[in-house]
Structures are given as C-alpha cells and as structure tokens.
Design a protein that fits this description.
The chain has a domain of 44 residues. It is built from four helices and no strands. It is mostly helical.
C-alpha cells in the first residue's frame, strides 16, 4: 500500500522537478528555482527585445485571450446556403472519384519505339 502511495505522489513530483527547466513560469518551475534545482529564467538580451515586434504579432501567444470576433454569426439563411455549397462540392468530388476509367488507346499490336541515346551520352 505504501508503494502505491509513493508511486501516486512521489513519482509525479519527481517528474515535475525533472521537467521544471522546460516550463516557462509554472508552479513547478518556481518551486524548483527556490529549491536550487533549476536556474531562474534570464531576461532576454537587448538585441532580442529590439527584434520582437511591440504591437501586432503574426500569431496569438499562448495564454493571451483572443479578441472578440468582429463578424456576426451567420443567420439561418446563410447557414443553409453554406450547407448547400458544401454538399454540392462533396457531390462533385464523389462523382469525380467514382467516374469510370478512360479507355486505353494502346491495343498491344505494335512494339514501343525506343530511341538510341545521343553519341555524347554513350560510354567511350
């Protein structure tokens, strides 16, 4: 029973301490830093801060709440029109995938013609 309790509590704690250096600002990182196991996260150098954009970024960073959407949700007519458009595209794809294969024009009666390579490519 004690081994089970140890596996349930001690092993996750050890795993958290082992992964603490890879965590940015979590409780495990703070505890490991206070215990002296992990080093504190250094501030970025000046040239790094100069390269980072101050305002608009091309992505939404983790932990930042996205802004509210400017578009209004679709009404019932727009949803129906979109469903019809998607169903038409699906039916077109299915029709293309299930079309019969084209008939082959080669009847097998004439041998294929193979041209000799140019003399400059032939071995000497």
């Amino acid at each position: 029973m004690t081994r089970f309790l140890m596996m349930c509590f001690v092993f996750p704690l050890l795993a958290g301490c082992a992964l603490a250096p890879y965590e940015d600002d979590g409780i495990t990182k703070k505890a490991a830093t206070l215990a002296g196991i992990a080093a504190p996260t250094p501030e970025p150098a000046e040239f790094v801060r100069a390269q980072r954009p101050a305002g608009e970024q091309g992505y939404l960073p983790v932990g930042v709440t996205p802004p509210a959407r400017e578009e209004a949700p679709r009404d019932a007519a727009a949803v129906t029109a979109l469903e019809e458009e998607l169903n038409a595209a699906r039916d077109k794809s299915r029709a293309f995938a299930t079309r019969p294969p084209p008939q082959a024009t080669y009847d097998g009666s004439t041998p294929p013609k193979v041209e000799k390579p140019p003399p400059e490519l032939m071995p000497q």
